[in-house]
Write a structure and sequence with these properties.
11 helices; six-stranded parallel β-sheet; alpha/beta; about 325 residues
Length: about 325
């Protein structure tokens, strides 16, 4: 058959009779043919591939973001090339160069650092369409944020209504927006209730996978220890709960807990956890929508979108 018929059948574009399509499909199977995407990209001038730069695919949150971004982009006919920075600025720069050289059409990214001088910031000089996720930036691009501050404030207010006055916070470093916003939300809620925040009850770890056991043990040894905890993620929370249980405290009878993350993970806990839910699928959908609009030619003002966190009540607070 003609090459034009093969092209129409494989790309799903243009008329091809059903008998012809079946013959072509059989030939593809028999020969083990696969398209040469590099040649196709050169011919049509598009890769139909978007880059996704995350901190670590082993992090369940990042894996969820990847799954959602891939699902939303695939519906629009795009593939995703994902890579982890491991919070290494040098690897981040290498990946940016790779994405540009591979002729990707755009990038959705969690930058490793914030506050980098404009002249040294690799994202400020990135040539492809860009959407930044959950990082404070001083260059002009679309961005999607999670509302960590309001979410943590909501969790602390809920614990207050249950009678708690010594409420601890375990979270990631304040060097990046998520950690700073969580700390501000914790402080906001306590100040609103007329309490001076005790800095000994707020521990911001270097990363979401750092062990929190030492810090949690120090909190429980205070003259007035916490009676409740708001903690980020599975790793930090599980480490903190090990210390709480070793201290002989029962949840929720002696100690209350609010987790931050995805209910699917926390639902496996022995006591179903009250959770501040990250709306990761909504965040991914908004990011992909912004990217696709850029690729269609949007050249208006850059957008800053904020996704709320939801308090999902379980059985871990009393």
């Amino acid at each position: 058959v003609s090459t034009a018929s093969v092209s129409r059948a494989l790309n799903g574009i243009g008329p091809v009779s059903e008998p012809m399509r079946k013959r072509i499909d059989k030939a593809v199977r028999d020969t083990g043919y696969s398209p040469n995407f590099s040649a196709k990209h050169l011919r049509i001038g598009r890769s139909k591939t978007i880059g996704l730069m995350i901190s670590d695919i082993a992090n369940p949150f990042m894996a969820s973001v990847f799954a959602s971004v891939e699902r939303h982009l695939s519906r629009a006919g795009f593939s995703v090339l994902a890579a982890s920075t491991y919070n290494d600025p040098q690897r981040e720069q290498e990946l940016l160069t790779l994405y540009e050289n591979r002729r990707l059409e755009g990038l959705i990214a969690y930058p490793v650092r914030e506050g980098v001088p404009h002249a040294q910031d690799p994202f400020a000089h990135f040539s492809l369409p860009l959407v930044v996720m959950d990082r404070e930036i001083d260059y002009d691009c679309d961005a999607v944020f999670l509302d960590h501050r309001s979410g943590v404030r909501q969790a602390v207010d809920y614990l207050w209504t249950l009678g708690h006055r010594r409420i601890a916070l375990l979270g990631p470093s304040g060097s990046l927006r998520p950690g700073r916003e969580k700390l501000l939300g914790w402080q906001d809620a306590l100040v609103h209730r007329g309490i001076d925040p005790d800095p000994r009850l707020a521990c911001m770890l270097k990363s979401a996978i750092d062990p929190p056991e030492e810090q949690m043990a120090e909190m429980l040894c205070l003259p007035a220890p916490p009676t409740a905890l708001v903690a980020l993620g599975t790793h930090i929370l599980s480490g903190a709960l090990r210390v709480v249980r070793r201290a002989g405290l029962r949840i929720p009878h002696d100690f209350s807990v609010v987790g931050i993350g995805t209910p699917e993970v926390f639902a496996m806990a022995e006591t179903p956890l009250t959770t501040l839910r990250f709306n990761l699928d909504q965040q991914a959908r908004l990011a992909t929508d912004l990217m696709l609009e850029q690729l269609r030619g949007y050249d208006g003002p850059k957008r800053r979108l904020i996704v709320p966190l939801d308090l999902v009540l379980g059985e871990s607070c009393g």
